[in-house]
Design a protein that fits this description.
Elements: E1 9-16, E2 23-30, H1 35-46, E3 54-58, E4 61-64, E5 75-76, E6 92-97, E7 103-113, E8 123-128, H2 138-150, H3 157-164, H4 174-185, H5 205-216, E9 226-227, E10 234-237, H6 240-249, H7 254-257, E11 271-274, H8 276-292, H9 296-314, E12 316-317
Parallel strand pairs: 4-5, 9-12
Antiparallel strand pairs: 1-2, 1-7, 2-8, 3-4, 3-6, 6-7, 10-11
């Protein structure tokens, strides 16, 4: 019997620096999340609204969504998986959000854990205090904001109330955070899908053996990825059932799914085009749903689709050549 795929969880404690008393969160995410996906989880956990740029700093390396022409030394957060850049439990790194307010967050990898049955991930498991509101002016500006909000006689109290309304710096709800994470990372509803046709993708035992042999080959024997330009699109062929899996069983962004809603003509191949960043995002949504579903049949289909997306990703590269 083929062994079931397993994914571990990375548990992080995140502290917002230069705040007193401390604002912090404890979050659990899948080990193969990209840094960009980790960014999205933290945005929800802290209550940020993703208005501004961000950057991860791990060792000497910097990761964000770089501009291909003038940020060649910045590594791509959408193409970097956390399990590939962290040494292990105890690893520390930094996340900066909003280069104007300059909010610095310290990440510590506390544990690597197996997932619990019937638990939805990613999730927040602990934390204290509300995150500062967007555009509060950084740590110093936030201090001034709290001072004005706490004193009805402060000269800026009315202006601050008009800006954001009432604000409780001690308020924090794990339930609200996890509802937000569920909304961001899982489908709101599972709409009924037409029965799968006979073209459901399957592999014969011989094909499985060949595939495993290819996967087990040393890296130097595998074909080199085809080099393409940044933001150049590559083709991914999806049959009707695979389109249904993405549209009906994942919470992939409309930016990714709208093109799948265009049904190919009778004599047209069902080929869709994505950038590598888009493929990586799509694969993340498919993998998350595969580990969430209780249906063995659906999990098998989603895992197969994830493997096909990953194969397409491994076949190309848009990273610059570093001598």
């Amino acid at each position: 019997m083929e062994a079931a795929k397993t994914r571990d969880l990375y548990q992080f404690k995140v502290i917002l620096r230069h705040t007193s008393p401390k604002i912090w969160r404890r979050i659990q995410v899948w080990e193969d999340y990209t840094l960009h996906q980790l960014h999205r989880v933290l945005q929800a956990a802290m209550g940020w609204e993703d208005y501004h740029l961000y950057e991860f700093r791990i060792g000497r390396a910097k990761y964000r969504d770089p501009h291909p022409e003038n940020e060649l030394k910045i590594l791509n957060a959408k193409r970097t998986r956390i399990c590939n850049v962290l040494a292990g439990v105890g690893a520390k790194f930094e996340y900066i959000y909003d280069f104007g307010d300059n909010w610095h967050h310290e990440f510590v990898l506390e544990a690597i854990l197996p997932p619990s049955p019937d638990t939805l991930y990613p999730r927040c498991v602990a934390g204290e205090r509300s995150g500062p509101p967007e555009d509060a002016g950084g740590a110093h500006g936030y201090e001034n904001y709290l001072e004005a909000m706490a004193d009805p006689n402060h000269e800026q109290h009315e202006d601050m109330m008009a800006w954001r309304g009432p604000f409780d710096p001690e308020a924090f709800s794990i339930e609200k955070v996890n509802k937000q994470l569920e909304k961001k990372f899982r489908a709101v509803s599972k709409r009924a899908m037409p029965a799968a046709n006979d073209s459901k993708p399957t592999l014969s035992p011989q094909a499985k053996q060949i595939l495993e042999a290819i996967r087990s080959e040393p890296a130097f024997r595998r074909p080199k990825p085809i080099r393409i330009q940044p933001n150049e699109k590559v083709s991914l062929q999806l049959n009707e059932r695979e389109r249904e899996l993405v549209l009906g069983h994942t919470f992939a962004d409309e930016e990714l799914t709208n093109r799948l809603r265009v049904v190919p003509g009778k004599d047209e191949r069902p080929v869709f085009r994505f950038t590598l960043d888009e493929l990586d995002e799509l694969g993340g949504f498919v993998a998350a749903e595969a580990n969430h579903t209780k249906s063995k049949k659906l999990r098998k289909e989603l895992n197969h689709l994830f493997d096909r997306i990953q194969t397409a990703l491994d076949s190309y590269t848009d990273e610059p050549i570093i001598n």
